[in-house]
Amino acid sequence: MRTLIKSAQDIAHMRVACRLASEVLDYITDFVTVGVTTGELDALCHTYMRDVQGTVPAPLNYQPPGYPPYPKAICTSVNDVICHGIPGERVLRAGDTVNLDITVITPEGYFGDTSRMFFIGEPSILAKRLCEVTYECMWLGIAQIRDQAYLGDIGYAIQKHAHAAGYSVVREYCGHGIGTVFHEEPQVLHYGNPKTGMQLQAGMIFTVEPMINAGKRDIRIMPDHWTVKTRDRSLSAQWEHTVLVTQTGYEVLTLSEHSPPPPDLINQRSVVL
Predict the structure, then answer these.
(1) For the chain, what is the mean pLDDT?
(2) Which of 7, 95, 163, 251 is at 20 to 30 A from 204, Cα to Cα?
(3) Which domains are seen in the chain, by residue range?
(4) What digits encode the pLDDT tens for the residues 146-197?
């Protein structure tokens, strides 16, 4: 994989692609309710991408080396599923949590990638707290981004906050560069040490997408070769934004009308290491 510094034209196209990905989440929000199946959510998202946006779902038939083709348009990760849950007959019940991970490809060939957590009915105190802390972790990582900062700064901020809350950070999966390729350099780890790793440059675009477990960080991969669960069956949560590195800081590209606002702690205290 290569690290790409995006041109002004690339950045303009990525702003569109990322906004469209976020708008899929805006659209599907009202359908994420008790009694719906994950397969129904997938079908609704796919139809919206194809018929309303004119985009293509990037996950559909995506096949990295060693994997079977991914069979659906989105990922639906419920409760103890960390990532890559395949939509199907699973009925969402009161108390469930679910992450919907959306990646679209525009007609111009640019990828936009984002995910959100959803509560089904009233969440447990544990589930609500885990999702809140994970959202804070993502934004604390994003807040480190600027020209000449380091990838390790992002990972350290995420890890520090998750561990302080008593949670663990999944290490097998990470954020990634993105543009006209789904996954490219840099790999963005959600753990690390300050002032280590690749130094950031203005014009880079990558995702920040921490996966945080209520229990231990260990994983287990299901027989479908895609679905990843917590080994101890504890709850897991994930949020994801795609971010542009600028000369003075960062620009979150995957924002749309109904995107949740940054958490209060981003404005309440300094988050630069």
Answers:
(1) 96
(2) 163
(3) 8-253 (3.90.230.10)
(4) 999 999 999 999 999 999 999 999 999 999 999 999 999 999 999 999 999 9
Q: What is the pTM of this model?
A: 0.95
Closest listed residue to residue 217, CA positions, set 190, 186, 193, 199: 190
Sign of the alpha-carbon dihedral angle for 12, 13, 18, 24: positive
193 and 152 in contact (C-beta within 8 Å)?
A: yes
Taking CA atoms, 193 is separated from 89, 153, 197, in Å, by 42, 6, 8
What are the residues whose beta carbons fall under 8 Å from the beta carbon of 266, sequence distance 6 or more?
A: 139, 140, 143
Locate 180 and state its tokens.
Answer: 């006209």
Give CA–CA dist 232/254, Å, rounded: 32
70 vs 18, 115, 128, 241, CA distance in Å?
21, 17, 30, 22
Q: Name residue, tokens 């917590």.
A: 230
> With contact defined as beta carbons under 8 Å apart, do 13 and 108 qualify?
yes
Torsion of Cα atoms, 216 then 222 then 228 then 231, to 10°: 0
Helices 151-164 and 125-142: crossing angle, nearest 10°? 160
CB neighbours of 86 closer than 8 A, spacing ≥ 6?
Answer: 70, 71, 72, 75, 76, 224, 226, 227
The closest of 108, 46, 32, 44 to 77, measured between CA atoms, is 32
DSSP per-residue string spanning 161-222: HHHHTT-EE--S--EEE-SSSSSEEEEE-SS--TT-SPBP-TT-EEEE--EEESS-S-EEE-
